[in-house]
Amino acid sequence: PAPRTVLLTGAAGGVGTLMRRLLPSYGYRLRLLDVVPIEDAEEGTEVVTADLADTGALRAAVRGTDAVLHLAGISLEADFPEILRANVEGTYHLYEAVRAEGVRRVVLASSNHAVGFTPRPAGDDPLVPVDTPHRPDTFYGLSKCFGEDLASLYWDRYGVETVSVRIGSLQPEPTDVRMLSVWLSPADGARLFHAALTAGDVGHTVVYGSSANTRLWWDLSSARALGYQPRDDAEAFAARLLAEQGEPDPARPEHAFLGGQFCTDPPRWGR
Ligand code: 15L
To answer: pTM higher than 0.90, yes or no?
Structure first.
């Protein structure tokens, strides 16, 4: 049966806020979890305010759900102890709660920064495949590599299914030339998460998360195999962004790799 009650972790964050508005139209009943209190939840939506380190509260939040969309964690670079606590230990606590409560599936917010030091394809180069080796560009990206491997372990050992989504840039509009390649529109994000929540027998599947961008760098075929049909293309924003910022110069290190600025001068959490 299709999942109905879905726990959304990190529901107060950037992606969480967009998704909690879009996913109910697919028929989901959302339970929202965040360490930050959520005051503006839709009528009738359950809200849990808890840290992932509070294992009792986390188990109670997971209990009775059909699936978890795990977006919680630090979303930029930070010092290693902070990444360790929020992203590494936090994701471990989430999977332990899921295993203990018998929840069948997790959709995990991984990131392109798990493979951020992969060179950008140019000319006739093939798109970056989903099984390209991990090449994290930050401790943040390294924590996403950990999350993917944790998901693999919990599938092989405990039969917990995961779709790990290496999200590009999920925000309302592309704001720089890199996003002409990696943008995931909010509407396509909801389509992709819905596909990841409902596709049959995913085991542990890794997919890239972006719209059908003309300048795509990576291979969306594993996402399409789940039933994802993107409708948006960042190219609609290309003329304006290229006029403002110019064509990216591949000789510059911030334009040489998938991760962009994360490879040179990563934006930091909380600053
Ligand atoms: C990410 O993983 C970050 O969470 C987000 O803030 C963006 O920077 C995005 O990647 C990106 O690559 O644009």
So the answer is: yes
**Closest atom of ligand 1 to CA, residue 140:** 2
228 is catalytic: no
User: How far, in Å, is the centroid of ligand 1 from the Cα of 32?
Assistant: 22
Nearest atom in ligand 1 to the alpha carbon of residue 113 is 2
Separation of CA 156 and ligand 1 centre (Å): 29
Report d(CA 48, CA 57) in Å as an integer.
8
Does 110 contact ligand 1 (Cβ within 6 A)? no
Does 118 contact ligand 1 (Cβ within 6 A)? no
Give SS3 for 46: strand
Tell me the pLDDT tens digit for each residue of 73-84: 999 999 999 999
SS3 35: coil
Query: Roughly how many angstroms between the first and final C-alpha of the chain, as a whole number?
Result: 44
Please say whether the beta carbons of 20 and 28 come within 8 A: no
pLDDT digits (tens, 9 = 90+) for 101-110: 999 999 999 9
Residues 6+ apart with CB under 8 A from 236: none
Does residue 111 have its Cβ closer than 6 Å to ligand 1? yes
Which residue reads 């995931």 in tokens? 184
CATH topology of domain 5-263: Rossmann fold (3.40.50)
